[in-house]
Design goal:
Helices cover 29% and strands 22% of the residues. 40% of the residues are buried. By secondary structure, the protein is of the alpha/beta class.
Length: 207
């Protein structure tokens, strides 16, 4: 029995865009807490986005090798639903915050996703993204989907180079639990295009 694919729009920075994405049917919105990213948000910006979200839309915080004490302090003032770890975090680190979490894997030809899933077995899912040297995500690059094993024991979140044009093929071919998009629905780096967001969600759902 096939399920309806879930959609996460990542890298949102303002309340109006976040609310609009939710109204268009986004299941989750992502907030980036990573200084070098053009989508990085301050705590105040993140609080405003969370306050604008309607119920049953998951808020996801994206982190890259964040200092654990800093992250604990952040979680005291920011009620994120889910943590997304995009760096070289260990399973022990990921589970130390008492929150549900997912682990991102940047896929290369020699990446063993079954091993990753075993290592991070208590993650809520594995997010697979393109490997681009020196960039932890949001690159807009796709990767070879045939590298994804069919029998992955964790829910699969497909990311990397997705856009309104190719997402329906991706969903049809991979049947992931969810798809995650950031640069593929932007008019400029870090600026979401709500028309593209609407097209992306519609294409993902009607794959």
């Amino acid at each position: 029995m096939s399920h309806q694919v879930r959609v996460k729009i990542c890298g949102l920075r303002d309340p109006a865009t976040a609310r609009a994405a939710a109204q268009m049917g986004a299941d989750a919105i992502g907030l980036v807490f990573y200084g070098p990213s053009p989508r990085n948000v301050s705590v105040a910006e993140a609080q405003a986005v969370l306050a604008a979200l309607p119920p049953f839309v998951t808020s996801v915080g994206l982190f890259v090798n964040a200092d654990a004490d800093w992250l604990r302090d952040l979680l005291k003032v920011l009620p994120l639903d889910l943590l997304q770890f995009h760096g070289d975090e260990s399973p022990e680190y990921c589970r130390s915050f008492g929150k549900p979490w997912i682990k991102a894997v940047r896929v290369k030809p020699d990446t063993n996703l079954i091993e990753y899933a075993a290592l991070f077995h208590d993650a809520r899912g594995l997010l697979v993204d393109a490997f681009v040297e020196g960039t932890p995500g949001g690159t807009g690059e796709a990767f070879d989907w045939s590298l994804i094993p069919k029998d992955l024991p964790l829910p699969l979140i497909l990311s990397g180079g997705l856009d309104p044009v190719n997402v329906s093929e991706a969903v049809a071919r991979i049947a992931p639990w969810a798809v995650d998009v950031s640069s593929g629905v932007e008019s400029a780096r870090g600026v979401k295009d709500l028309n593209k967001v609407a097209q992306f969600i519609k294409a993902a759902r009607h794959a």
